[in-house]
């Protein structure tokens, strides 16, 4: 428990540093500090929400949504992430524009990699027109301008990046290159030299001391010798014995003090070694817990993404994609309550009407002579929900295609699993017994 409090304090320190960086528009630096805060305390809600806001400000909407969804799943009560997600859901145009911009950015990147700079520049200008804060698009556009030696336009793009994220490392490096090629670096260096330079002193600046009375060399020598003799006499007569005694007493006291300090230091070292051993043990336990959480979190995100993909495919009518993703799910591994609710909704649709629709598409394909296509539809329908009808149709198609062993196996399944259905007798007849 003591070590958990220490981790929480470290996370809070990183969060405060990240918040200060964010206020200064150093978004890249703030993001790194907030990631460290979350490394030490995954429940640091303010750090995760602020990281999402920074991603959103830099045009990375998908990354922002991931942080807010995780925040809501970890701490759903009184969470600002709920407000952010609600605002985006009430404005679906934002998600559509951001999704389109990501596709256009990737297309521009592909154009740039295949030496189609003109098309890449055109795409990036469209992206920036829709999302002026998309930092990655500005930097890629600046690189394309630099490749053309159009340093002024490259500088303008990098200037916009530094307005959004004042210490963006990539933009700073590229801006140095742009300044060297435009002469700005030399101008700024000369300005610094002028600011920190000093003018030379002139004769008018020299302070001439007032004239003093000079002593003769003999007088000076006599005074020095006399002063030295008197000083030695007083020292040996009065001060030396007392000084020796005082020095001995002081040395003894210092020796006692050093001995006491050494004993205290040894005791402190022993205590620190014990504390260090305990802290190391606590650290190992905390690291093991963190590793387990990261693995669970990765599994959660993969399951969440699969369910979202199935829902998206169903909403667009792409039942083949939905069916392929659904049969790959492992429902037993989904233990999160929110994901179980999503799974229940998806399962209701897939086993309610999608499997029947696949069966109908298979029959239509078979009637059109597209046996391979029909085989795929029937197979997906059976994998989603085994019924006497779709299982019998699959077996008949396999029999027609010459896959006798597989067909007989499915005929036997119809008879064994659905003995009271009308298809059981038809399966026996087709099977030949």
From TrEMBL:
TPR repeats lie at residues 11-44. The chain crosses the membrane at residues 218-238. Keywords: Coiled coil, Membrane, TPR repeat, Transmembrane, Transmembrane helix. This is Tetratricopeptide repeat-like domain-containing protein. It holds the Pfam family TPR_6. Residues 255-303 form a coiled coil. It comes from the Bacteria. PROSITE patterns: TPR. The keyword Manganese does not apply.
